[in-house]
Design brief:
5 helices, mainly alpha, single chain
């Protein structure tokens, strides 16, 4: 435990997990799933937090992102 904390590996692990969650969310959004459903399905139950994290990573809100892929 101390080794993980002292080297900051816990933060790296958290970032990787968050990146995977957002990547999966982007995939679900491209396939037309509703934003609230997507957030919950990737394990982020605070919708405001999900939107903020998604926008920081992809440069647009989840709704804006999903609209790009609607035909």
């Amino acid at each position: 435990r101390d080794l993980v904390r002292s080297r900051g590996l816990g933060d790296v692990y958290k970032r990787q997990i968050n990146d995977l969650r957002l990547w999966k969310a982007s995939d679900l959004l491209r396939h037309g799933h509703p934003v609230g459903e997507v957030a919950a399905s990737v394990g982020i139950h605070d919708l405001s937090y999900f939107i903020k994290q998604f926008k920081n990573k992809y440069g647009s809100t989840p709704l804006q992102y999903s609209k790009r892929y609607k035909s």
